[in-house]
Write a structure and sequence with these properties.
By secondary structure, the chain is an alpha/beta fold. The chain is built from six helices and ten strands, in the order βαβββααβαββαβαββ.
Length: 216
């Protein structure tokens, strides 16, 4: 039986992950990490409220078998790329470091299509930098997921995702845009759960348009 830790548990993918993991017999405990208290209807889900600016004070919470990292914000929500970076890179990297120190074996990260530390785009650059940093930590297994536009119900409006909802029926049939087509957050969560239940080791990258992972 495994213990799963979900970072970003109130987000689009995180909410789906918590629900799906709670219904998996292989997971006896799911720890949902949040900024504010959340009540769950699942007996095997516990909520841990943390201050992300003082993560060292909560280091013991990040103990288990598998860590799902799907925390994220937007420039609009954060106010600037610098503020977004704190959430999308600094917080996630710190949690990954604490989990690695606590001997968590498997780290699964939601990144982004186009992630590249050398990109001129600040968003893709920060995503690429985080990927490189976590790959260097001493996890037995690192699984990185690079979805494109995410669709699903959120507690805030994202214009790009609203446009993607209407374009999705067209995009999925265009070969050149196939790898950029939108995908439901629940589908990403489902794939992550499936990967977490397999017994592979090492580093792997999952892109939207690929059935099999790439070895990093």
């Amino acid at each position: 039986m495994k213990t799963a830790i979900v970072l970003g548990a109130t987000g689009l993918i995180g909410r789906n992950l918590v629900a799906q993991l709670a219904n998996q017999a292989e997971y006896s405990k799911v720890i949902a990490i949040t900024r504010r208290r959340v009540e769950y209807d699942f007996e095997n889900v516990s909520n841990e409220v943390v201050n992300f600016d003082c993560l060292d004070d909560f280091s013991n919470i990040f103990t288990g078998d598998v860590l799902f990292s799907c925390l994220g914000t937007t420039k609009k929500q954060a106010g600037s790329y610098e503020a977004q970076r704190i959430v999308d890179v600094d917080y996630q990297l710190k949690v990954a470091q604490l989990a690695a120190k606590n001997k968590v074996q498997h780290y699964l990260l939601v990144s982004s299509r186009g992630a590249n530390s050398k990109s001129n785009n600040p968003y893709f650059q920060m995503k690429g930098e985080l990927e490189e940093q976590v790959i260097g930590l001493n996890f037995v297994r690192v699984s990185i997921f690079q979805p494109s536009l995410l669709l699903g119900e959120r507690d805030h409006f994202r214009f790009g995702e609203a446009i993607g909802f209407y374009l999705m029926p067209v995009l999925k049939y265009l070969p050149l845009l196939k790898s950029y087509r939108p995908i439901e957050g629940g589908e990403v969560a489902e794939k992550m759960v499936q990967v977490s239940l397999s017994s592979e080791t090492g580093k792997e990258l999952f892109k939207l348009d690929e059935v099999f992972p790439q070895v990093l």
